[in-house]
Write a structure and sequence with these properties.
By secondary structure, this protein is of the alpha+beta class. The protein folds into two domains: 258 residues, no CATH class; 118 residues, MM3350-like (Structural Genomics Hypothetical 15.5 Kd Protein In mrcA-pckA Intergenic Region, Chain A). 29% of the residues lie in helices and 19% in strands. The chain has twelve helices and 14 strands. The strands form four sheets. The chain has a seven-stranded antiparallel β-sheet with strand order 11-10-12-13-8-9-14, with helices on one face. A three-stranded antiparallel β-sheet has the order 5-7-6. A two-stranded antiparallel sheet has the order 1-2. A hairpin with a 4-residue loop joins strand 1 and strand 2.
Length: 419
């Protein structure tokens, strides 16, 4: 939860903000390095690895060498988060939804979304800078990186800023470990790329990751971090109600959490070039006949569904095809273009969205990608629901249809007498 609102005198930083010119290499190298990452994905067929769909490890050293701040490691088995600058840039890449992860045989490959890339290239440097800043501090979710923490990133960064001296010297392993917890190494790296602070790297140590010798806060960070925190706390969202007008009715709250454009009104007087706000990709209903391969181990069924059918219809079609009863709860889950987990649950569950409200055509799933259908939260049956193809609509087809069976379905309630 956010902390109490702190007084922030924006006028203190008026001259600083008005004199700040944003280019590809100032303040910081965030625009240059983000462009380097996009170019790298265009030039190389970069594979996604693991359940979090991170950049596969074999591509990281080459990308690391091309960034403005390369990470010098002495690790025998580095992982993705061993490269804090890459880890942070990857977070921004997914939040901006400029890439899609597409299946290629047994692999998953990063592909740039040409329409989104074109829209990005049409923004001026000021618009790009603040779009990335909001993507990082306001919109991003660390779940994309595989982190279990649910704290808002702006809270982590603002708390670190509040607790840290203008110059912080990292003199021992305890302080180094502290940076990993607050604000987190990828956030420290991004703060430097945005020109909010400067980092003096430490001497690499055998068997150790990125070493930091000194962190120095910069005036731009003193301006932008409190400004962002203030805008975040003033956003009229239900969990923020105690910081807003107590007379507000619940119906007055917006449906969505704060997102892109939150800072525009505060910053535009200092940055008149800030006109266009980056927008998340729209979720458009996709007409057609969806053909799914629904697998449970080596056993599978092929099911066709019109786009207009609900996910509840699809759930019952799956259960019927396996001869299962339909008297338990279930959920569908998949990762969207931003790398976030989307969960759509049985209508009797507590949290929306519910399967009787979501149509098959509402789910943004490119052919070759899969959802998981988890049935019976006790026995925990997990079906892989892979979209094989999307064909034109057939007006004669109104319901889900079983096309093919392969293998004998397991017993839903096997005998455990032998236990």
């Amino acid at each position: 939860m956010p902390g109490k609102k702190q007084p922030f005198a924006l006028e203190t930083y008026t001259d600083l903000l008005r004199s700040q010119t944003i280019t590809e290499e100032s303040p910081g190298f965030i625009l240059k390095d983000f462009r380097t990452l996009l170019n790298f994905l265009q030039e190389e067929q970069v594979l996604a690895g693991g359940k979090n769909q991170l950049l596969q490890l074999k591509f990281l050293p080459a990308l690391n060498d091309r960034l403005s701040h390369s990470t010098d490691l002495r690790l025998k088995r580095p992982v993705h988060k061993s490269y804090p600058y890459i880890h942070g840039l990857y977070l921004l890449l997914r939040v901006m939804a400029i890439v899609q992860i597409m299946p290629r045989g047994r692999n998953q490959v990063f592909e740039l979304d040409e329409a989104r890339l074109q829209a990005w290239n049409q923004l001026n440097p000021t618009e790009q800078y603040f779009a990335l800043l909001e993507a990082w501090l306001i919109v991003a979710n660390e779940a994309v990186l595989g982190e279990a923490r649910s704290r808002e990133i702006i809270n982590q960064v603002a708390l670190y800023w509040q607790l840290t001296e203008p110059t912080q010297k990292i003199t021992n392993d305890l302080l180094q470990d502290g940076l990993e917890r607050l604000p987190g190494l990828p956030h420290l790296a991004l703060a430097e790329l945005f020109g909010l602070l400067s980092i003096q790297p430490g001497k690499p140590k055998e068997g150790k990751g990125w070493q930091v010798k000194q962190v120095k806060k910069l005036p731009l960070g003193d301006a932008l971090i409190p400004l962002t925190m203030n805008a975040f706390l003033n956003y009229p969202y239900p969990w923020n109600a105690e910081f807003n007008d107590p007379a507000m009715d619940e119906q007055d709250f917006p449906d969505e959490p704060p997102g892109f454009g939150l800072l525009k009104s505060a910053l535009q007087p200092f940055f008149p070039e800030l006109q266009t706000v980056w927008t998340p990709p729209s979720q458009v209903f996709q007409e057609g006949i969806y053909t799914f391969k629904v697998s449970l181990g080596s056993v599978w069924r092929r099911i066709a569904s019109p786009a207009e059918c609900s996910l509840e219809d699809l759930a019952y079609a799956i259960l019927n095809s396996y001869g299962f009863d339909d008297d338990h709860l279930y959920e569908f889950s998949y990762k969207d273009q931003r790398g976030l987990l989307c969960q759509i649950c049985h209508p009797a569950c507590e949290e929306p969205p519910f399967t009787d409200e979501v149509r098959v055509g509402d789910v943004v799933l490119p052919p070759g990608q899969a959802m998981q259908f988890r049935y019976d939260f006790g026995d925990n049956w997990k079906f892989k629901v892979e979209l094989e193809s999307l064909a034109p609509s057939d007006p004669k087809m109104k319901q889900c249809k079983l096309l093919e069976r392969h293998g004998k379905a397991p017993e839903q309630y096997p005998s455990y007498d032998g236990w």
